[in-house]
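User: Here's a protein and a ligand (zinc ion). What would the complex look like?
Assistant: Let me lay out the input and then the predicted complex.
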Amino acid sequence: MREKVEMEKIGLHLGYPTCCVDMFLRNCHIDFWWERYAKDHWAIGTGYIPCPFCAQRNREEVESGIRLMRKHQSPWPEVDFTLLSKELSLGPNNA
Ligand SMILES: [Zn+2]
């Protein structure tokens, strides 16, 4: 698991809403807590983990927000970790 400060940097760089990044950081010991409540949720498999509020929001609205805020060069929902490490000058992923 990465350091919280790195996780936060990554989440924001990928364009995820701050409320979701905050929630993820607070709950990062509970992996994919929300999948238990929404097994068919659109965000599953994207790497993005919505907070309970955003999990209820309209998909297009959340995705357009992510696209708008996104600094990562791979288009949503793709994440290129090699590129991401370069963009953020991260250390090796020991997760
Ligand atoms: Zn949220």
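Summary: The chain has one domain: 2-88.
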